[in-house]
Amino acid sequence: MRASPGLDSYLPFSTNDRSSSVNGTWGPDGVTFFIIQGLDSLGQEKTLLFCILLLGYIVILGGNSMIIFVALTDSKLNSPMFFFLYNLSFVDIIYTTTTIPSMLSGLLAGMNTISVPGCFLQMHFLIQLGVTSRAILTVMAYDRYVAICKPLRYTAIMTRPARLLLIVGSWSFGVFCTLPATSMAFQRFYCGPNVVKHGWCDPSSVRRLVCGDVTVDNFVALSCAVVALLTTGVLILTSYILIGLSVLKMGVAQRLKVFGTCAAHLTVVSISYSSASCVYISYRVASFPPEVRIVVSVVYAALTPFLNPMIYSLKNKELRESIRRTLSSFRPAAVLPNKDVNTDA
Question: Per-residue pLDDT averaged across 315-321, rounded?
């Protein structure tokens, strides 16, 4: 049986050839595609990982699609909280679709290649959607702050134009924190090797393939990441500090109600930022093998979108009831058997 070509077969013949960029295209002397190494060293365990990822991706699509559907069709879920929730679910679907299908194809085919422009598009949407989801979580924290601390003015503040403006602002913030780093990476020269040691076009992994000094690139990428994380993190923390100060003035029954209102959001925020911290630690610890970094990144990319529908469904009675009604409406109506009634004249 013929052996499959290794990674070295796909590498440029010379690492001294520099890629040329003319009108945004790469010449034949430079890298025209990247190879996503992924978890190629797992061997037979790739089949198990493929099944786990596929099952998780199906759950992510199903759960978040259900939230979007019930939020758009159920008139009882017309509050700002559900408006922001289905926007978050929409972002989660696109975010996981940017990464997981590509990794699944790599596990199935054994070799995953991507064009240079496709790699940068994946990189851009990966960062942008990650920042946008955190911005929407920040908006949801602000919504909880207004609902608890300013209940009499809630409807006047969270109007439909205000909600739309907050969502547009979340997407714009994601673009603002993404464009500098991805545009700089797009303009760099890649002369080989072209193997990305990650499960997808991870920004830091792609920067290692640049033929030249990337000190400025690293500084810009780090600055954008700090702005994104600190801005959203500080605003979320501030919202809950103000909520906590208001709760201290409430009775026990009101405190329990506030906790029930904020529990789902707090859980999602805690999972999101703790998993992001694990990814950061895995990159900073040099002793971690690349496979560990990839697995941690996959868990980070899939964990929050996977758990979001479950957490909000369990913690929110209105959403849970709406999902139950929706599922009940799809059940076929029970057909009762015809009963012959014999009547004697």
Answer: 82
Give the dihedral sign, CA 88/154/148/228. Answer: positive
CA angle 329, 331, 337 (to 5 degrees): 120
Q: What are phi and psi of 113, to 5 degrees?
A: -115, 155
CB-based contacts of 14, cutoff 8 Å, min separation 6: 192
Where is average pLDDT lowest: 10-19, 67-76, 312-321? 10-19
Where does 33-79 have alpha helices with state H? 45-73
Tokens matching residue 103: 């990794």
**Which residues fall within 8 angstroms of residue 43, CB to CB, at 6 or more apart?**
none
pLDDT of residue 337: 53
pTM attached to this predicted model: 0.83
| CB 140 within 8 Å of CB 262 | no
195-196 sheet: strands from edge to edge:
112-115, 33-36, 195-196
**What is the 3 state secondary structure string of 168-182?**
HHHHHHHHHHHHHHH
